[in-house]
# Entry
Amino acid sequence: MKMYIEFYASLMKYLPPGNARFRREIKVEDSLKLSRLIARYHILPEEAHLVLVNGLYVYAEAREGRELQEGDVVSIWPPVAGG
Amino acid sequence: MSWTRKILRVNLSKGSCTPEPLNMEWAMEYLGQRGLASKYLSEEVDPTCDALGPDNKLIMATGPLTGTSASTAGRYSVICKSPLTGAIAASNSGGFFGPEMKFAGWDMIIFEGKSEKPVYLLIQDDQVELRSAEDIWGKSAWETDDILHATHQDPQMRIAIIGRTAEAGCLYAGIINDRHRAAGRSGVGTVMASKNLKAVAIRGTGGIGNLEDADKFFEAVDAGKKVLADGAVTGQGLPTYGTQVLMNVINGVGGLPAHNMRDVGFDGAGDISAEAMAEPRKSDGKPNLVTGAGCFACTIACGRISTIDKTHFSVKDKPQYHGASGGLEYEAAWALGADTGVSDLDALTYVNFLCNEDGFDPISFGATVAAAMEMFQDGDLTTKDTGGIELKFGSAEALVAITELLVTGEGFAKDLGMGSKRLCDKYKRPELSMTVKSQEFPAYDPRGIQGMGLGYATSNRGACHLRGYTVASEVLGIPVKTEMNDAEGKPELVKAFQDATALVDSAGLCIFTTFAWGMDDIAPQIDAACEGDWSVEGCLEVGERIWNMERIFNQAAGFTADDDKLPKRMLKEAIKSGPTKGQVSRLGEMLPKYYEIRGWNPKGEVTAETRERLSL
# Structure
């Protein structure tokens, strides 16, 4: 299935080659779990601090059971702050 | 020493400078800086006074840790009644000015009255004098900085200065120190200008000594620095990307307001983000971001030093802006960018330079321009009003032109300088002003992030993110994640953040330490430096006391529960798209509970019991 990944800040180095600044369209197997997707791009659990699926926060403990759907956008940040 | 125990009272009407002892009884109850200076203001100033009249006072205050080796101990605050809001103002700045005040031997400076002619205050340790500023009145903050450094032949001198916008009466003018650090919000610079005070130049050679328990202090400071270094946010995130890393985060979660908060979500967010600042430019292959920067004693160093593309339309004929200077920070980039719909990073960097050069708050300014843009779009404003500027959302040219106009103080600049509330009232569109207590919102939509809505509504200095940064919990998961759209639990969260922040602001520390530090990291540093008992519980009580004292000042100034409200747009116009689609602020659900846990009556008034409990 087709879906999208967005890696920000220091995680941009894990993005596969492409032109867009943050986003890549990828093809993955059906029923892929969120935690598997994160591991596939070599992002360590402690680096994946803020993980959104379609803009909604997914708690760390829910990532293993979260099944991704066609067209989902997964956005990931390391620990960051500002204000 | 933690406190120098000495303050300087400057009567500008009489031209006198008088040292006096710090009121240590009050210091034990209000610690320093924001809290202690607000106590002095509450005792000495009639809350109903004209903020721009001689009866208002302007206090520059340090905290007991300012100038020590504690991480981030470079802060000072400016306290007065605000001309923008009519409420109590406390604006906090980093850099090196606060520590220099301590090195010269002063905890705070109280300015009262009004000078007949423009003056600046010169402090060289215990030598203090008012000098004529007639030849620097009318100069920008940057020009003044250059002139005073040249006059006194002392590159180590630290100077706090107002720019031309303050002199012109812009109600959101700040005070600039070290060229790009600012006591930025609530118009504290306008109050300084109303007293004909152009600058405060300080050179101190005394250093800091006499800590209550020096060994214990250095132990606590070392432990605190280790926590900051080991913290992922304070040790890596903020130093590497600065505050601007939030642009994509807040946009991603559905909390980034745009176009005068008509929309949530901004397509150009990526182009004005921290990540974009680090990309090489097409013209010269260099990035916007030159380096990070830290204030005095800071081990985080979130500051950004940037350059503008020399070929960009805003500066191609202005070589004076081709060098590196401060910016962009997140709040400024949001107000000048997303809120106006402008996604031109170089234009925003240039406009931010102008905010620093002439000392005006980029949040209030950007938000006021955004309100003007919405009125321009709706036909309430035309080019006849704006001096010919096509004030359209998304126009970098218009943003640059209107900013350059503001600095002149001429024509439409007078309207813009009133701030969003008065501007929208004048053009009969009051509903388009995105303000609380006449102060403009910062960069988080209260419909998307419920705690921030309650925080804006109840902030003692008008809409502000720095009075209780619940975004840390609601978005960033610090110290624990709470749901953005939950109203339940938010009154408790907001109160906890507000009280803790009041304490941190009164210590001389930076609030960004709290991305890693809890009160159990902070209290031991204060306790070791200062006489008295500064346990965690004691510190939190001081924070709560300060919050209530500010509230009591505002009550006496005429504020009521009716002022703890958000614009209708936040309550009635649901977010139209994105992950927070359909949401409005649920302030009405949160406010009664907030009053209750504050120990206030249903009208939001501090009760006699609460005053007694907090010794107010």
Summary: The two ends of chain B are 28 Å apart (CA to CA). The interface with chain A takes residues 231-233, 236-238, 240-246, 248-249, 252-254, 270, 274-276, 279, 302, 329-331, 465-466, 469, 471-472, 475-478, 481, 483-484, 511-512, 515, 578-580 of chain B (CB under 8 Å). The CA atoms of residues 105 and 387 of chain B lie 49 Å apart. DSSP finds 25 helices and 19 strands in chain B.
